[in-house]
Specification:
The chain is an alpha/beta fold. It has six helices and 17 strands. Helix content is 18%, strand content 33%. The structure holds fe (ii) ion (FE2). Fe (ii) ion binds next to strand 9, strand 13 and strand 16.
């Protein structure tokens, strides 16, 4: 009998995103995705989607270049946080404690094998709706937004990595993340993609292959909507705002989420997502696609454009200048 699995991570947590066009980025998330600015500090703004139970889910940071500042996980308890920090320090991944940040408690920052920064935290301030946003149901945290794409909450993040397998095993061994699907790399020495989760949700953290020499890049950040129809609505919203649609609306083969991809004005790719299967079986094994089967995968919908697999942020070909 194997040992009990590690279940110290509760869910993917708050994110911080860098942008060279902070005003444009905030307008995109507020006017087009339907989120609200809930706090401001110098050139940083904190945003909340109407279903986020925490006080905010996205921190928009003005910077010279687009890209991820950090991604975080909330742990299930304070001792769980200490256990994961101990694992990091015992296995050569020591980081440093960071101070509380607008209702996010003290967090421990460290890097994954590709150099993306992550933070672990437990203490958190819950969202408290102002009178104007108080929901009729006490089980909701905020009134229904009904604005723009009307995203409900943060859903998942996709990072690019030159070593997908190393990143996958790092999270499996150190944090008990479950992997639901893997795509083998044609050379069989590495993997082209892996879809991982701390829960039954089909994906919270995705790694896909980095095709440039860069490290630590973001492929996309995804916010959830309630239905496939809402993804189509998001396409109408983006089209009228003259925001180019890079891919979708369509359905992915892996995890089977319905998607729409655009890039916010700072250059970071953002997905409006719905669905994706749930994995109830506690003893599930990842489905492993060979490179050949993946190339001939059965599916429907529009093919993803080649640029979809290459572009990420920071973009080495784009000389962003701060607006
Ligand atoms: Fe996605």
């Amino acid at each position: 009998m194997n040992d009990d699995p590690v279940r110290d991570l509760a869910h993917l947590g708050r994110h911080a995103l860098r942008t060279p066009d902070p005003d444009g980025t905030v307008r995109y998330f507020v006017d087009l995705l339907g989120m609200d600015v809930v706090a401001e500090e110098d050139d940083t703004r904190y945003l909340h989607a109407y279903g986020d139970y925490e006080a905010w889910s996205l921190k928009v940071v003005a910077a010279d270049r687009a890209g991820p500042a950090w991604v975080s996980w909330r742990t299930v308890t304070p001792p769980a946080l200490q256990r994961r920090v101990r694992w990091l320090e015992d296995h050569g991944h020591a980081g440093r404690w960071r101070p509380p940040d607008q209702g996010m408690g003290s967090s421990y920052e460290f890097a994954d094998p590709d150099g993306h920064l992550f933070r672990l935290y437990y203490d958190t301030d819950r969202y408290v709706a102002p009178d104007s946003r108080r929901p009729v149901l006490p089980t909701n945290v905020s009134a229904y937004a009904g604005r723009g794409a009307n995203v409900r909450r943060l859903d998942h993040v996709n990072l690019l990595s030159r070593e997908v397998r190393a990143c996958r095993t790092f999270w499996e061994e150190g944090f008990g993340l479950r992997t639901f699907e893997i795509v083998r790399h044609p050379d069989e020495h590495d993997e082209a993609a892996a879809w991982m989760s701390s829960s039954i949700q089909g994906h919270e953290l995705i790694y896909t292959q980095e095709h440039t020499r860069s490290q630590g890049r973001l492929h996309h950040l995804a916010y959830l909507v309630d239905s496939r129809e809402d993804v189509l609505r998001a396409a109408e919203v983006m089209a009228d705002a003259r925001i180019a649609i890079e891919a979708g609306p369509s359905r992915h083969t892996a995890i089977q989420g319905f998607y729409l991809y655009t890039r916010e004005p700072g250059g970071n790719r953002v997905e409006v997502a719905h669905g994706g299967y749930l994995v109830l079986a506690p003893d599930s094994e990842p489905y492993v696609w060979s490179a050949e089967d993946w190339a001939a995968k059965p599916s429907w919908g529009a093919p993803l454009p080649p640029e979809f697999h290459i572009y990420g942020t920071p973009d080495p070909d784009r000389q962003e200048t701060r607006q």
